[in-house]
């Protein structure tokens, strides 16, 4: 049976997609993949792409791995690690074609804003991780965090914002998005493209 769990031999070595999947090719990362609903649907729809789910909670990691194995998805791996550490220290530059950051904890209280992943010093890390023309896709139900991300990305000068119509391409809703939409909450989304540094 397929084993989707990824455990590196060395947590201090920068990885290439081939170190994870045994081959290179389109490589996408789902930061904070949760219960894996989005990740597994994407992997099933795009068998030519390789998908890595990043999740720090062990129970969730085990659940996603189990479902991926049952479905026979050999283009999915799940890695239990902190998102910032993974991007900053464990990925070789220019490897990720698309990074998905969907429905994260918005840390709504002002004193907790420092816990948000998207910060001024995070965006150069993200930029370095993406391939040329790579994409950063973000969704949230929290308007404050959405505006925070738009502001930080704009001030970084490292990305351009691209169009993202609802049916422009296959992009399944996460479990949290489905819950929020059932409650009548709006969903905010933004798609950013990596710019070349001048």
UniProtKB/TrEMBL annotation:
It is an enzyme of class 2 (transferase). This is tRNA (guanine-N(7)-)-methyltransferase. Belongs to the class I-like SAM-binding methyltransferase superfamily. TrmB family. SUPFAM superfamilies: S-adenosyl-L-methionine-dependent methyltransferases. GO terms for molecular function: tRNA (guanine(46)-N7)-methyltransferase activity. The keyword Transcription does not apply. S-adenosyl-L-methionine binds at residues 30, 55, 82, 105. Pathway: tRNA modification; N(7)-methylguanine-tRNA biosynthesis. InterPro entries: SAM-dependent_MTases_sf, tRNA_(Gua-N-7)_MeTrfase_Trmb, tRNA_methyltr_TrmB_bact. NCBIfam families: tRNA (guanosine(46)-N7)-methyltransferase TrmB (TIGR00091). Its EC number is 2.1.1.33. It holds the Pfam family Methyltransf_4. Catalyzes the formation of N(7)-methylguanine at position 46 (m7G46) in tRNA. Substrate binds at residues 109, 141. GO terms for cellular component: tRNA methyltransferase complex.
